[in-house]
Amino acid sequence: MSSHAHQHHEPHGVDLARAAQTTLERSGEQWTTMRASVFAALAAFTKPASAYDIAEAVSKSEGRRVAANSVYRILDLFVGANLVRRVESANAYIANAHPGCLHDCIFLVCDSCGQTVHLDDDAITRGVRHAAEAAGFQPERPVIEVRGKCADCD
Ligand SMILES: [Zn+2]
Ligand SMILES: [Zn+2]
Q1: CA of 33 to the centre of ligand 2 (A)
Q2: What stretches in the chain show pLDDT beneath 50?
């Protein structure tokens, strides 16, 4: 692990849902039953999930048809509030392991099994932001994703 690694407590399961709820409510939004279901469904995936995957899972758990469009709107809200991150190269979403802490995550995406883990190295991401600024570009959302093979698929 890098000496620059960002150290913080990363909640899981019920604790993660509670941390997500707190963060969303702090942003002035309500933690509705539907939003809670969408977050729970996403957090249960071991790999990044698409809006369709999540709509499928929520439909099953709710026992009624939930449209991908409504799931997409909630995901959009979650991304804006830092509860969920988009894994761009996988065109999918992943629950943010640290919803209360805003910084740029680095994702390692396995090409074989799709497993995606995230790393925090603020020295690297700050460097990316500085390089963009030095080029006269205003960085709003750096996307740093590394494709390759995970330890299980090696
Ligand atoms: Zn992170
Ligand atoms: Zn793998």
Answers
A1: 33
A2: 1-5
Helix (H) or strand (E) holding 106: strand 106-110
> What pLDDT score does 79 carry?
95
CA of 110 to the centre of ligand 1 (A): 17
Cα of 109 to ligand 2 centre, how many Å? 8
Radius of gyration for the chain, computed over Cα atoms and rounded to the nearest angstrom: 16
d(CA 92, CA 53) in angstroms, rounded, equals 9
- Quote the ligand 1 centre to 100 CA distance (angstroms): 11
100 is written with which tokens? 């209360």
Gap from CA of 115 to ligand 1 centroid (Å): 16
Residues whose CB falls within 8 Å of the CB of residue 152, separated by 6 or more in sequence, listed in order: 110, 113, 115
Distance CA 11, CA 38 (A): 18
Distance 117 CA to ligand 2 centre (A): 10
> pLDDT tens digit string along 74-118?
999 999 999 999 999 999 999 999 888 888 999 999 999 999 998
Ligand number nearest CA of 104 is 1
Q: Is pTM, for the whole model, over 0.70?
A: yes
